[in-house]
Amino acid sequence: MLKVPDHQVAGHQAGDGKLGPLIDDSGHFYKPLQNDGRGSHELAFYTSFSTDTRIPDHIRKFFPVFYGTRHLEASDGSGLYPHLALEDTVSSRINPSVLDAKIGSRTWYPQAAEDYIIKCLKKDRETTSLELGFRVSGLRVYGNKETGFWKPDKKCVLNFSIEDTRLALRKFVSSNPSTDSDIKPDCSFASAVYGGPAGILAQLLKLKSWFEEQTIFHFYSCSVLMVYEKESILQGRNSGAEIKLVDFAHVIEGKGVIDHNFLGGLCSLIKLISDIVTSSA
Amino acid sequence: MLKVPDHQVAGHQAGDGKLGPLIDDSGHFYKPLQNDGRGSHELAFYTSFSTDTRIPDHIRKFFPVFYGTRHLEASDGSGLYPHLALEDTVSSRINPSVLDAKIGSRTWYPQAAEDYIIKCLKKDRETTSLELGFRVSGLRVYGNKETGFWKPDKKCVLNFSIEDTRLALRKFVSSNPSTDSDIKPDCSFASAVYGGPAGILAQLLKLKSWFEEQTIFHFYSCSVLMVYEKESILQGRNSGAEIKLVDFAHVIEGKGVIDHNFLGGLCSLIKLISDIVTSSA
User: Fold this and answer.
1) Residue among A260, A270, A271 minimizing CB distance to B268
2) For residue range B175-209, what is the model confidence (pLDDT) as tens digits?
3) Where do the segments described as Disordered lie (chains A, B) (predicted)?
4) Cys staple from A95: which of A142, B150, B172, B186, with CB 3.0 to 4.6 Å?
5) CATH for the stretch A96-279
6) How many residue contacts between A and B have a Cβ separation below 8 Å?
7) Among A82, A98, A130, A69, which residue's Cα sits nearest to residue A11?
């Protein structure tokens, strides 16, 4: 039984006759292949990555498992359409809090078409990408049964300043993620989610070590998804904090050079999260 | 007694009636203050940096010591002109080999004037800056008494491809830094210059650790200068390998964000040098 995922925080969304991702009960996430070249590009990445023996297991787990392509009834009602079948790391969770950070101060690659470069450069300058090395593309933070999720709308998120971004990273791990700017986020889940040997910071540092060495791929316009389950923490269990890289429509070959653009942005994200962990300890 | 330094590998050069840096016998390097705002900008940086107590000593030594400003007879014969008085870390050496690497895939800062941004972006795309995260701005490598220095001309260096850059970093530590492309650089000084606990790689890694944390300054269009003395190695003494950051006309405030642009490029340089050390071990 296919349905539209309700946890999505960024990217094309299905519903209202639009083409977007679908999920099923077996833990799969189906992403329609965009037909402007991006789809085939992303498929080529998943095919290449999933069989590349140079990727260590402790890094591979930061990427969704790829199950090939499936022809499914598209969400826009246009009939059978090719989809990437991927591991769904979010929908299987209970009230997952999710943050999508698009990494890199530059979302375009040197060989891209000129009009694409101009479009990306404009957006990189209008958002925090250029100054901060990444931008938040979306987030939703679970409050409780009454309040449900705090989910700022897309336009609001795209207008985030550096200070808004810092605040969003604090709200993401707070019990009071209100839109009310008078309420200071308490960061009460910072140590459970960001900190500790299995926390998000530790995972990001592992990813960083790999990016200091790997020269196989350059990841443009790729996001780090951060997920955890608040109720799991409140019940004294593991936070389920996990990072996943997503969106590979603009991955190019590294040709022996490290992905300094992704690495720089990743280090900036790490610094901001590290500051939160330190100040909440 | 002021004279024109002969070790300079990049930047404005004095001589032929042009305004450029001067040196004296007391180990000072005098850099004329550029009068388009860059000069006062660089002066402001040195003034601020030299009194900033947040800079640890093991990082401060990577920057030239600043001795204030001096009014000196300009090299272009135009009379008295203000100069920055800096530590000269090169001229006091015997036949120093020098490499200047301008760090960062982006040499422009977000607040710069639009025409300046366009000019920089063009040059970043034409050189290796964009793809590699840095570009070699100049180098000279000492051969021996007969051959003197191998110093590719400025135009040739600006046209370096990524492969040329990799090769230049190998030639920089080779006993046969010939322009003849058939001769493979032997990298015989790689371990003495790049490697070891006091080598250039170790120094770059210390600098990297600081850049992962520091949010005080963002260094645009700034270079890492690498220097060593070949004859010192051949005589069984220390290589004198040293890095110095130079050119601070485009340093801006960090405002709580790390310099991900510099850090990414620095990591790319580190990877290339690390590859040379590993393959020469």
Assistant:
1) A260
2) 988 767 678 899 999 999 999 999 999 999 999 99
3) 1-20
4) A142
5) 3.30.470.160
6) 74
7) A98
Give the tokens for residue B274: 């690390």
Interface residues from chain B to A (CB-CB < 8 Å): 105-106, 110, 125, 130-133, 162, 212-213, 215, 255-258, 260-261, 263-265, 267-268, 270-271
Specify whether the CB–CB gap between A202 and A216 falls below 8 A.
Answer: no
CA nearest to B10, candidates B128, B100, B130, B104: B100
The DSSP-derived string for A12-27 is ---BTTB---EE-TTS
- Cβ of B162 within 8 Å of Cβ of A133? The answer is no
Note whether A138 and A129 are within 8 A (CB): no
Q: Are B225 and B102 in contact (CB under 8 A)?
A: no
B268–A131 C-beta distance less than 8 A: no
Find, among B58, B54, B49, the residue nearest to B203 by Cα. B58
- Angle at which helices B162-171 and B260-280 pack, to 10 degrees? 60
For residue A130, which residues of chain B lie inside 8 Å, CB to CB?
A: 110
Residues of A in contact with B215 (CB under 8 A): 271
Between chains, do B215 and A106 touch, taking CB under 8 Å as contact?
A: no
Q: How is B98-112 classified by DSSP, letter by letter?
A: EEEEEE-S--S-TTS
**Any bridge partners for residue A242, and if so which?**
A227
Question: Does the model's ipTM exceed the 0.95 cut?
Answer: no
Give CA–CA dist B265/A259, Å, rounded.
Answer: 9
